[in-house]
Amino acid sequence: MPGPVSTDTNTGEVQKQTHARLVLLTRAEEREGRGEDIADAVLLLTSEMSRWITGQTISVSGGITGN
């Protein structure tokens, strides 16, 4: 479950709305995610290191809690 991620398509008003609503809820760094943040989670899940992980929902969101 990715959180807000900065991309080439979310600029201007969309980016401002994302920042105002979601980024302020992150606990890790109070920033939008980057493609590299999502890629790191994908690499983990596709590597041998995840051999014992099954049926999980993994949040890659910088710690957004919704509070």
Order of SSEs: HH
- How large is the radius of gyration? 13 Å
Bin the helical content: 25-40%
The count of helical stretches stands at 2
Estimated structural class: mainly alpha
Beta-strand content = under 5%
Biggest sheet details? none
What is the rounded distance between the termini? 17 Å
Q: Mean pLDDT across all residues, rounded? A: 85
State the shape.
elongated
Number of strands: 0
Low-confidence stretches: none
Describe this structure in words.
- The chain has 67 residues and is an all-alpha fold.
- The longest helix is centred in the middle third of the chain and has 11 residues, at 35-45.
- The model has no long low-confidence stretch (mean pLDDT 85).
- The protein has 2 helices and no strands.
- 30% of the residues lie in helices and 0% in strands.
Short description, anyone?
By secondary structure, this protein is mainly alpha-helical.
How would the blueprint of this fold be written?
Blueprint: H1 13-21, H2 35-45
